[in-house]
Amino acid sequence: MIAYLDTQIVIWLCQKALDKISTPALAEIEISDLLVSPIVLLELQYLYEIKRIVQPAQVLINQLASQIGVKICAHPFRDIAETALFESWTRDPFDRLIVAHARSNGYSPLVTSDSKIQERYPKAVW
């Protein structure tokens, strides 16, 4: 079974801040094959460029790839974009595409601490 990781979860995992992640979310991380949407990679790079995190995106993803086997998902962008057309509950393009990615790829679980995503995506895990 696969599960997607939201951007904040990737950051906390890299920081080894497991105390910030809920017990159900940690359980999902433990049992799932973990994926990130390429948009998470882009959001991480954006956060690095505005100095909200201290390492570039690729360093963080490589860290999680080697530590827990996280992979960047290759689900077709066209499917994600078409699904994102219906994620009109947010104006945040990152959230819109991250949720659309999980939804378009088998309505997969999405590990997220974001309360707006939790309210709008029934397969959100927190």
Short description:
The protein has 126 residues and is of the alpha/beta class. It has seven helices and five strands.
Using only C-alpha atoms, the radius of gyration works out to 13 Å
* Oligomeric form: single chain
> Class, according to the CATH hierarchy?
Alpha Beta
From N to C, what is the helix and strand string? Answer: EHHEHHEHHEHE
Mean pLDDT: 97
Let me know the CATH homologous superfamily: 5'-nuclease
Residue stretches low in confidence (pLDDT < 50, at least 5 long) are none
Q: Report the count of strand segments.
A: 5
Total tally of structural domains = 1
Q: Please give the share of residues in helix.
A: 40-55%
Sheet with most strands: strand arrangement:
3-2-1-4-5
Largest sheet: 5 strands, parallel
Reported by name, the CATH topology is Rossmann fold
Cα distance spanning the termini: 17 Å
Strand content: 5-15%
Structural class: alpha/beta
Based on CA inertia axes, which overall geometry fits?
globular
CATH architecture: 3-Layer(aba) Sandwich
Our count of helices gives: 7
Q: Can you give a write-up of this model?
A:
The chain is built from 7 helices and 5 strands, in the order βααβααβααβαβ. It is an alpha/beta fold and 126 residues long. It has a single domain, classed as 5'-nuclease (Rossmann fold). Strands 3-2-1-4-5 form a 5-stranded parallel sheet. Helix 7 (115-120) links the parallel strand 4 (110-111) and strand 5 (124-125). The chain starts with a strand and ends with a strand.
